[in-house]
Amino acid sequence: MAKDKPKISLLLSGGGARAAYQVGVLKAISEWYPRVHHSPFSIYCGTSAGAINATSIACYASCFRLGVKKLEWIWGRLHSRRIFKSSPLGMTGYLAHQWYARMQAQHHERPPFGLLNNRPLRELLNQVNNYERLEKQIMAGNLDGLSITASSYKSGLSVSFFQGQPYLSEWDRAKSKGRRAMLNTDHLMASAAIPLVFPASRIGRHYYGDGSIHQLAPLRPSLKMGADKILIINLINQKIEPSEHTQTPGLATLGGHLMDTIFSDTLTADLEHLDRTNRLLQTLPNDARAKLNMKVVDHIHLFPSQSFEPLAQDNYCYLPPMTRALMRMIGISPQDDAAITSYILFEPSYIKSLIQLGYEDALSQEVKLRNFLK
Questions:
Q1: PNPLA domain location, by residue (predicted)?
Q2: Which residue among the candidates 144, 210, 260, 361 is catalytic per the annotation?
Q3: What is the pLDDT of residues 161-200, one digit of tens each?
Q4: Has 364 been annotated as catalytic?
Q5: What domains sit in the chain, N to C, each tagged with a CATH number?
């Protein structure tokens, strides 16, 4: 990759099954390049399901279209059973184990709590990801860095584990830090461990959960790794109609609001801060910027043009029966609580719809995106 070209970062936010939308966007972008062309991105940053997508295509930084095709192939064949144990025996056995473990004496180590057993996801990631390719892409100069963000339940900090070029330095900032690591499935499982839904994952001696929980500055990993431009593919849910204000919010409604807040609100605030900083820097001469060791960082913020909720409602019936029963038990209905359902609906018809939506949204902004990626 030419050294004088700007470093473009791809930032993928979290959102469970919603992350299929990101695959559609990347599919459209990949079609603008020759089959053997390197990736337009040299920096990849992901959180939760976005971290899984970022890692998959970063492994193929030297052949962007191949990486995206493999990612699309994986998502196109997903079922709930490939993400969590969804059979009646698997779910009841897991919940019984969780209950039994908490009835034991305190000196027994208890497993981290989660409503769903995501061991199948770990097995899938071990099958489809070739982590050795990451270091090869870095050594070949095709990849500057990959960052996976998780939240430490011990320290309450947002921790960005990164693997990249030797010149990248670790960082310590308010409520966040960056640590160099050889990335593997443990980091992805930690970043994608949605609170209460999936159990926390252990890295070293500490447990970590979904990277969006304590992530106050989602843009920081991209900036710390030297990005000149950032393409953000966000999974914020577009509300079509405001909910009935007289209706009492239930557990699932509150959970949906909390998850939307965790996955999207901090990014909006961080983008506002970046815009203010850019406007300030543009008023300064170049030598003043150099003294401050700061630069203007351009960005594009892509997000779905439609709400996820109608798609989740239409495809709710495809969830495994035992999963639907569990959701009913905790107060989730398909009609009123589609926001929270949209995070765990790993079914082919829903995923296909999200990929198509992302593809169409990217094509609608083709000229803008092409100019940005030059």
A1: 10-225
A2: 210
A3: 999 999 999 999 988 999 999 999 999 999 999 888 899 9
A4: no
A5: 8-238+246-324+336-373 (3.40.1090)
